[in-house]
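#lab-general

N.A. 3:47 PM
ok so I finally got the sequence cleaned up, no stray characters, all 122 residues accounted for. can someone with queue access submit it? mine expired

B.Y. 3:52 PM
send it over

N.A. 3:53 PM
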Amino acid sequence: MSSPRILVADDEPALLRLLEFVLGRRGYVVQRVSNGDAAIDVLKTECPDLAILDVMMPGRDGFEVLTFIRETDHLAGLPVVLLTARAQLDDIQQGLSLGADAYLAKPFDPEELLSVVESLVS
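B.Y. 4:20 PM
back already:
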């Protein structure tokens, strides 16, 4: 069985490296992109096992990428985690109402993230 593939979209290079390290240690294959448009380009040709999206990114934001995922037939069931500094109640409600499976605030606890990822991928 191949390792689960995770698409990570965030405009902070240091955070992308951290996520790749944390997830890679657990055997996940991580594909990093730095904005929402790049995430959508990947999703048009590939279907990862999970997506982790920042909300605030250049181009299309995480909410727009999430909407694209939920409106695209072959992606509609893809688990999505929003990982963002936008942690106000209305942001969280918007993310969950758009179909996010989990909403984590930055700074995040790597063990909490791994627990959420493992529950969604298994």
